[in-house]
Design goal:
binds flavin mononucleotide, 2 domains, 13 helices, TIM Barrel
Length: 333
């Protein structure tokens, strides 16, 4: 299947395995590449000294051995509150990471440095204002993050967001993210004019994912109405499974926390503190045998009924997409 995304990244199937904090790992990324897609991970999953450099060497070696067209990319949180941003960017540029996904903040430095060696940059966007900034900086494409996505979901439906991005920026490729977990979903996004799809939640329920079995089981057992938004992880609304633990810690910041995050002197430090403590809670929750169950996931849990290997999931997505296309042709004919 050829789209603008497959030719831009030199991959076989127009699918990105989305970056997931504390979930994405080397095994998932290698399996993704070996099965013809673009697999990514957040640089923040590798925070210890020397870890990221070593992983990038290993991934570059795996990529050089591939017999299919697959690749990997890295997600950088381009925000002042990410203390490792500049250090990680420098390492990625040295190792010539094939492509980047930027989220939050200003992607200027990433775009300039990636383009210096031919790397590509796709920016997560949830609205036209942010997309305009990324466009002006020369990004290679947008990842349109819509309602119900895992993580920092956008407020808009993908039907409206993707069409609007095409209208404003007809020369830029758009990749759809949020609520897609099967071939019908992929085909519907291609029909909207997306060059491909970025999928996160589906890949949590994989044998390779580095999280507890309880978390994977919760992905399989949960339904779309079990997904709620919380401000307790990063200060920005984030989708989680509504477990008893999530209910206990609540979903909204209180008036004092709000004041600290709006005050110009305390803003930066308070946000850093919220993000650090949110990270700690998440970190506890993904480990086996922990009573904390703060589990990030999107509404596509509704469509997920099994824990499989990354290969099995990609194979199934390819078959489903082709079948959905055949079905559509018979309906339209
Ligand atoms: C557990 C989890 C962690 C995530 N962590 C990140 C992250 O670190 N950086 C990022 O840009 N997006 C992150 N996301 C968002 C995904 O990259 C992607 O946009 C989203 O999963 C797409 O929606 P879907 O989950 O409905 O497929 C995360 C999503 C999930 C489910």
């Amino acid at each position: 299947m050829q789209t603008q995304l497959t030719s831009s990244l030199n991959i076989e199937f127009p699918l990105i395995m989305a970056p997931m904090f504390l979930v994405s790992n080397k095994a998932m990324v290698v399996a993704g590449m070996q099965n013809g897609i673009a697999a990514t991970f957040p640089s923040l999953n590798y925070r210890n000294e020397g870890e990221l450099e070593m992983l990038l060497d290993e991934l570059n070696e795996e990529k050089s051995k591939l017999s299919v067209k697959g690749t990997y990319g890295i997600n950088l949180i381009v925000q002042k509150t990410n203390p490792l941003y500049e250090k990680h960017l420098k390492i990625c540029v040295e190792k010539k990471v094939p492509f980047y996904i930027t989220s939050l903040g200003n992607p200027k430095q990433v775009i300039e440095q990636a383009h210096s060696y031919g790397g590509k940059v796709f920016c997560d966007v949830t609205n036209i204002e942010h997309a305009q900034k990324c466009y002006d900086l020369g990004c290679d494409g947008f990842i349109a993050v819509g309602q119900g996505a895992g993580g920092h979901a956008g407020p808009n439906t993908l039907q409206v967001l993707i069409s609007s991005l095409h209208h404003h920026f007809p020369d830029k490729m758009v990749i759809a993210a949020g609520g897609i977990a099967n071939g019908e979903g992929i085909l519907s996004m291609l029909a909207l004019g997306a060059a491909g799809v970025s999928m996160g939640t589906r890949f949590i329920a994989t044998q390779e994912a580095g999280v507890s079995d309880a978390y994977k089981k919760a992905i399989v057992d949960s339904k779309m109405n079990d997904i709620v938004l919380t401000e307790k992880i990063s200060g920005t609304p984030c989708t989680i499974i509504n477990t008893p633990f999530a209910k206990k810690i609540g979903y909204k910041q209180n008036w004092f926390e709000r004041m600290l995050s709006n005050n110009s002197t305390t803003k930066k430090y308070f946000k850093m503190w919220v993000q650090l403590s949110g990270m700690k809670k998440l970190e506890q929750s993904v480990k086996p045998g922990n009573y904390q169950t703060l589990w990030c996931a999107g509404q596509s849990v509704e469509l997920i009924g099994d824990i499989k290997s990354v290969k099995e999931i990609i194979d199934r997505l390819k078959t489903e997409t082709t079948k959905a296309f055949e079905n559509l042709k018979s309906v339209v004919a």
